[in-house]
Specification:
The protein has 15 helices and eleven strands. It is α/β, with parallel strands linked by helices. The chain folds into two domains: about 200 residues, Periplasmic binding protein-like II (D-Maltodextrin-Binding Protein, domain 2), CATH 3.40.190.10; about 90 residues, D-Maltodextrin-Binding Protein, domain 2, CATH 3.40.190.10. It has a six-stranded mixed sheet with strand order 2-1-3-10-4-11, sandwiched between helices. Helix 6 links the parallel strand 6 and strand 7. The longest helix is centred in the last third of the chain and has 20 residues. It is globular and about 55 Å long. About 55% of the residues are buried. The N terminus is likely disordered.
Length: about 325
């Protein structure tokens, strides 16, 4: 199974296909397609495997963009690659993007790919029936990740803090293995590693990202320089995203085979992840980019995540949000 560490330390898109989306096939002139390559990174998260579909079905070329789609076994390396300028765009969470911005990276969020709505889970051993039962227990989690963030949200709701539990810091794949090996009482992880964790007899999910709407959004993130100087290519990537979603809807079985192969999981396993990733339509994108005071708005979530980053020592000061959320490309999709 492919490793994807959703680490907070420090593009492309994700899709499984949910609500109706009308795709736009644009920017398809040969000049763009034969121009400078755009190198975009992606890694093991169910919502991002569809970019293998876009590549295999020639949808990048159809939309006039020359793409080098780069797979990263280590998600952390993809974040670092974008921050250092080694790639032009990356598939990453809002948490990781804000951490990079706090470190001085100049980035632009140009698309909301999805929200995690169940594929991030806190899984506990038999006998633990709720988050409140975690008091005094050992929990494996990769520190600084979105699953660490999810764990803190769940503990807070249960009127507990991180001091009430014993954190065992491990990379996500190792954390799932430690849980299955009965070395810890619980684990916080994301799909597909949740499937591994649930192999422990009697284990069950006691909290998931479905209970915290909007807390874990995934994005197409590009360098600020690319957004300013290569707008046509960024637009082509966003157009390809929506066309890929539409293609998957119309060719579901073939698409699932491609995505399951990329994720190194069975077709049935991949299908089980569908409900846990909510793919955003254009309207949901526009709503998320609009400033607001609810979990549905990116600026609201960014504020909460910034507090998490600072309080956990991942940044000395809150990141600057000015110019971070760039909705011009989504608005241009017809």
């Amino acid at each position: 199974m492919i490793s994807r560490s959703r680490r907070l330390m420090t593009a492309l898109l994700c899709a499984l296909s949910l609500a109706g989306v009308t795709a736009l096939s644009a920017c398809s002139d040969s000049t763009a397609a034969s121009g400078t390559k755009v190198t975009i990174g992606y890694s093991a998260w169910p919502g991002w495997f569809p970019w293998a579909v876009a590549q295999e079905k020639g949808l990048f070329e159809k939309n006039g963009v020359n793409v080098d789609l780069k797979w990263f076994d280590s998600y952390t390396e993809s974040i670092n690659a974008l921050s250092s300028g080694a790639i032009d765009a990356n598939s990453q969470t809002l948490n990781d993007t804000l951490a990079s911005v706090s470190g001085g990276a100049k980035l632009s969020v140009v698309l909301v790919n999805d929200n995690s709505t169940g594929n991030d889970k806190i899984i506990a051993r038999q006998g633990i029936t709720g988050v409140a039962d975690l008091k005094g227990k050992k929990i494996a989690v990769e520190q600084g990740t979105v699953d660490h963030y999810l764990l803190l949200l769940a503990l807070q709701e249960a009127k507990l803090t991180e001091k009430d539990v014993e954190i065992v810091p491990l990379l996500t794949d190792a954390a799932a293995a430690a849980f299955v090996g009965e070395q810890v009482d619980a684990v916080a992880a994301f799909a597909p590693f949740t499937s591994k964790a649930l192999e422990r007899p009697g284990s069950r999910a006691i909290a998931t990202s479905a209970e915290f709407p909007g807390a874990i959004p995934d994005h197409l993130v590009v360098s600020e320089q690319m957004s300013k100087e290569r707008k046509k290519e960024v637009q082509a990537l966003v157009n390809t995203w929506f066309e890929t979603i539409d293609w998957i809807k119309q060719n579901r079985e073939e698409a699932v085979k491609i995505m399951a192969k990329r994720g190194a999981v069975s077709i049935d396993e991949y299908k089980s992840y569908d409900a846990g990733t909510t793919i955003f339509t254009k309207q949901q994108n526009l709503d998320a980019f609009t400033p607001g005071v609810t979990p549905a708005h990116l600026n609201f979530q960014a504020g909460k995540i910034a507090d998490f980053i600072v309080s956990n020592g991942l940044a000395q000061s809150r990141p600057n949000f000015d110019g971070l959320f760039d909705d011009q490309y989504v608005k241009a999709v017809k």
